[in-house]
Amino acid sequence: MKLIFLTLLIVSGIADSISEQYEVVGPADAVYAVAGEDVILPCSVKPNISVVDMRVEWFRLDLKDSQLVHLYEDHEDRNTDQIQAYSGRTKLIHQELQRGDASLKLSSVQVSDGGLYKCFIQSRSWYDDATVNVTVEAIGHPPVITVDGFDHSGGIHLQCESKGWYPEPDLEWLDSEGVSLSPETTKKHRNRDRFSVKHTITVHHRDSKIHCRVKLRRHMLEALIIISSNMFNPWRKSVILILFVVVLSVIPGILIAVFVLKNRAHGRLEKEKRRLMQAHNRLQDEHSHLQDEKRRIQHECDQHLRSLETIIPKALMHFRTHSGE
Question: What is the pTM of this model?
Fold first, then answer.
């Protein structure tokens, strides 16, 4: 009995000494990744020992449901219970496991990959873990500067917009000397997991360069517009342009109105013509009917007259005969 107890103490002491001797180490700072690119999540055992025969598990700490990101056990990857969004995108470099490196390669990074990860390594005699904080950035489209009209004093309204960023970037206006200019209006919009930003500014300087710069940590995109003197006399050009546009707008309207009225008048005339033709045809039919009726009556009268011409002489003769008797 004493021998068994002594053996357990020795084994426990060895396990404790191993646990104190080795540790799982992760990065001291957050790991930054760019959406669409690949990233390595560092994790290793110090001092370096092979983890080929150990269990290596990567999982998310900030998710409530299924948390498994990648599992290596019994010399193979076992990802049947892996989060669906990570399917086919995680990999351990097996050659590096010999040197105690259990870093996870994550391919085609998505914005949703940002979060808190744990690297857990376990052998028969010890285990340890390290935490890795992943921050994902999405680089948006280059900013676009547009002229958005003029104010009453002749200043030029400029608008700068950039889309597709994560997290929300900083947008600033700079003059030709690199001095920051305060925007008059600032708008932002979030579409699913991306941000769009839009700033407007009014410029009164002549012959100057105006920069629009969008920054997100170490990423920066910039656009430039050159403001010339002839852009600051908009009134005459605007009036001429407005008159020209009005004329172009009114003339087709007048032509269309004339065409419509002409068509309507022509339509009314055609309708009246058809009505008169129908009335004329009805009168023609009635006239023809009256002519037929006239001929019928005339025929009947002629027949009656001929009958009378036959009957009257006979009646006279009969009358004379009876009178002589």
Answer: 0.61
